[in-house]
UniProtKB/TrEMBL annotation:
Belongs to the barstar family. Signal peptide: none annotated. Residues 29-121 form the Barstar (barnase inhibitor) domain. Pfam families: Barstar (PF01337). Gene3D superfamilies: Barstar-like (3.30.370.10). It comes from Deinococcus budaensis. This is RNAse (Barnase) inhibitor barstar. InterPro entries: Barstar, Barstar-like_sf.
Amino acid sequence: MINVFQQPPQGIQTAPHEPRILAAGHQVAVREVDLEGVADKEGLMLAFLRGLGLTDHFGRNWDALYDVLTDPDARPVRFALVLRDYGHFQARHKQLGPQLQQVLLGAQAEAAARGRSLWLLAEEPDHDTRHW
């Protein structure tokens, strides 16, 4: 199996097993955003605030999220974002899902244009805890 970090970032990819260990060997910084309990846009922005270690000054909107993901002073040159429960989030949120994807892919393209790498790694929980 090819290590995801041996290739340039290519959209939203399935997270490898033990992404932090693999990333460390390739000098890639990793942060994790847990989308499992997100119910609305405010919850989504709070998940990114926590996952990225942002301050309360984070604007909690799409433009602010794009800006923090593309800020060369705030993000390392080689950076991976692990999106926990991404597939389930997309299935649950028919409007928020595509909006988030657009911001993430736009930030990834901007990073690449600046000679930087932003991996977007979708990771699903090991067990199904959803209650319908």
